[in-house]
Amino acid sequence: MAPQILVASNRGPVSYVPRADGTLDARRGGGGLVSGLSAIGPDAGALWVCAALGDGDREAVRRGIAEPGVRMLDIDAATHSAAYNGIANSVLWFVHHMLYQTPLEPVYDAEFRREWDAYRLYNRAFAAALADEADRNATVLIQDYHLALAPGMLRELRPDLRIGHFSHTPWAPPEYFRMLPDDIAEELLLGMLGADRLGFLTQRWLRAFQNCCQSVLGHFDGMAYWPRDQEPSFEYRIPGHQRRRTFLGVHGLGADADFLRERSRRADVDDRMAALREQIGGTDRKVIVRVDRTELSKNIVRGLLAYRALLEERPEWRERVVHLAFAYPSRQDLPVYREYTARVSQLADEINAEFATDGWTPVILHVEDDFARSLAAYRLADVALVNPIRDGMNLVAKEVPVVSDAGCALVLSREAGAYEELRDEALTVNPYDVTGTAAALHEALTMPPAERTERTKRLAAAATALPPQRWFLDQLNALREG
């Protein structure tokens, strides 16, 4: 039977790794989407369409190996690289996170146009697979900036389908979005508006999308914003096509409290806690924790600079506080990310060289991804530092209060999507203000225990208001009922 519910994303729920004997090891992934999809149950007959990302994945497709409910697309490796690294991660990610150093970048030249052609091909491959697999009047949920063109392409192939798209990133304001070439900006928005419904993590990102549509697409016949109760929509007509309406909604992905609390109490997490306590140097020292990928938008360097400023300006904290900085390398195939990762390590070494004493290491930096160790750090944290330049949501800000043993003060950037939900109980910082962040760290470290405990309870309640299972079902139901 053809599936009635389909999910499409660049990365799927499984990856394949070649073993020495030539067989393939299937490794299941995690995350909010995997957890959310489980909410519909194994008997729903859902299908997840994803890309083959590595040699093991491609070999699995060629051998006809597949997990139940998963279709992996063996897109040409060069096409995937140009679409994923050239456009999705080096253009769209930079636009939505406002990361460009504008005196030098972006440069939209012939190479960009070649990569954009690959991005089109990549999206077309997904649209064709979804059109081929979906049952009549099926519901399709397309994920993220990698597949911004797929809704419109799928609409052309299968007008009977209910199509949704969810953006897991921020959305750029019009003045930044319009750095894209005019025809590309228009193509992106029209690709998105091919969906029946678009989902965003916060009202702020939804409003930015609205503003981009009105700025870029205002010349289309009938392009107008319409509120419907509390859910806005756009109505428009492209010449030669019927008038269409696309609805917009907000679904603020929350932390999975049950999973986090159970997982954080396992023996391997206790072992990591003991090891970290030994590195910290006892139970008397305060602990500032950050857990991030070395993604440019996460602002790790300024976080370390703020910690150094704290030690410089507040010498009473020397030997009394330790910064656990978990910075897991990300996108190391891109030179700018390798350079950023190196700068994080260099700065941690500089702080330790300047301030360390016998028995006290000011910064403990870990760069190997270890989920159990991250959970151990969450439990140990007196202060969580989450200071992104810009972030669609930031689940770390939501996870720490859920897992914390004794209560944790949250220092939170106002540019994180999580700020909309957690602002009342967090200490808010401007992510560019190193001095202000250092002051917030001092305030967090000196927060009375009773206040910290009460804030943590309220943070945890807000953080778990829309757990992954409900987040997914809310989108699915809204799309079906719209």
Task: Give your account of this protein's structure.
With 482 residues, the chain is of the alpha/beta class. The protein is 45% helix and 19% strand. The protein has helices at 32-37, 55-63, 77-96, 110-133, 150-157, 174-177, 182-192, 203-216, 257-263, 267-280, 300-313, 335-355, 371-380, 396-403, 419-422, 434-445, 449-463, 468-481; strands at 5-8, 14-18, 24-28, 47-51, 70-73, 139-143, 162-166, 197-200, 221-228, 231-237, 244-250, 286-293, 321-328, 363-366, 383-386, 409-413, 427-429. Strands 5-4-1-6-7-8-11-10-9 form a nine-stranded mixed β-sheet, sandwiched between helices. Helix 14 links the parallel strand 15 (383-386) and strand 16 (409-413). Helix 3 (77-96) crosses helix 4 (110-133). The protein is globular. The two termini are 25 Å apart.
Provide a brief overview of the structure.
With 482 residues, this protein is α/β, with parallel strands linked by helices. Helix content is 45%, strand content 19%. The model has no long low-confidence stretch (mean pLDDT 92).
